[in-house]
Specification:
- The chain is an alpha/beta fold.
- Helix content is about 35%, strand content about 20%.
- It has ten helices and twelve strands.
- The chain has helices at about 20-35, 100-105, 120-140, 155-160, 190-195, 205, 215-220, 230-235, 245-250, 265-285, and strands spanning about 5-10, 40-45, 60, 65-70, 75-85, 90-100, 145-150, 175-180, 185-190, 215, 225-230, 255-260.
- The strands form two sheets. Strands 1, 2, 3, 4, 5, 6, 7, 8, 11 and 12 form a ten-stranded mixed β-sheet that branches. Strands 9-10 form a two-stranded antiparallel ribbon.
- Helix 4 links the parallel strand 7 and strand 8.
- The protein is globular, with a radius of gyration of 18 Å.
């Protein structure tokens, strides 16, 4: 019988805690199905203050309080809380990475009234991406796979291939990067490179032609496997290169696994989970 796989599933939202679309739908359902198939999968999300801690029985992890995450040349304080994704016979452990500066506000990516994207979204998700890796080290839990979802998690593969490249803790960790849409790239001014603490020599590899830091391109450039979810993303990988994202997709076409339309219930969810498990298993085998 194949060995269980250890997977960290990272997303910017997950149903029922908080969601705005398909990322949250899948993050709330896929881990439960993968867990039911015998694997140790855990979820990590931003610790948004709008998530109801009492309703979801979210608790502080005492040894995971007030540790520093480097952002923009300073140390931002992080704390980790935990709860569970519950189904009839499964409980998936969920970690929430909290910071009042970045996540104590209404709205996930933009202000709910003005509909304007937060000006500090680059810092918010720099903190989250780097914080995910620092949290794993403090937890002393080494997943074989880190599954990153859309641009908000795109810097995780880039960090693992630069700042953390020689860190023995992450020696055998492989990454999956799932793209839901090519419409929102998470593109930020050039000074976001400095905020992220990324090596200057890598600017040209995952920046864009205007010198901006592009979170989506970073994930596409450095993940071990790219998966696309939904017809829009699948179509995007087949067109001729027209912009920076398309060029990266064309360069990485042999690492792309189209998943089709993501189904969140019934047999469709089980088939999707098996597809991802096949991807995880192949990567885990190569990571040893």
């Amino acid at each position: 019988m194949p060995k269980p796989i250890d997977i960290l599933y990272v997303a910017s939202e997950a149903d029922p805690f908080i969601k705005s679309g398909s990322i949250g739908d899948l993050a709330g359902s896929l881990p439960k199905t993968v867990k039911a198939m015998g694997h140790d999968i855990r979820v990590m999300l931003p610790g948004y203050s709008s998530i109801n801690c009492r309703r979801f029985q979210i608790h502080n992890l005492l040894r995971m309080k007030d540790f520093g995450i480097p952002v923009s040349g300073r140390s931002e304080q992080a704390s980790v809380r935990s709860s569970y994704l519950n189904s009839e016979n499964q409980k998936v452990l969920v970690y929430f990475l909290a910071n009042d500066r970045y996540f104590n506000r209404e709205g996930l990516y933009f202000h709910p009234t003005t509909k304007k994207y937060f000006a500090d979204n680059d810092e918010r998700f720099i903190f989250f991406c780097r914080g995910v890796l620092e949290t794993l080290k403090k937890l002393r839990w080494q997943p074989q796979i880190i599954h990153c979802n859309d641009w908000q998690c795109g810097l995780i593969p880039a960090y693992l291939n630069s700042i953390y490249k020689n860190d023995p803790f992450f020696k055998n960790v492989k990454t999956v990067f799932s793209v839901f849409s090519l419409a929102s790239h998470g593109s930020f001014p050039k000074n976001s490179f400095e905020k992220a603490g990324l090596p200057p020599q890598l600017y040209g590899e995952y920046g864009d032609s205007l010198g901006r830091l592009n979170f989506l391109t970073a994930g596409l450039a450095f993940a071990d496997v790219i998966t696309t979810l939904g017809n829009r993303a699948d179509r995007g990988i087949r067109i001729s290169p027209q912009d920076d994202v398309d060029r990266v997709l064309q360069a990485r076409k042999n690492s792309i696994v189209p998943m089709g339309n993501a189904s969140h219930n019934g047999n469709g969810q089980g088939l999707l989970a098996m597809k991802f498990i096949d991807v995880y298993r192949e990567l885990a085998k190569n990571g040893r």
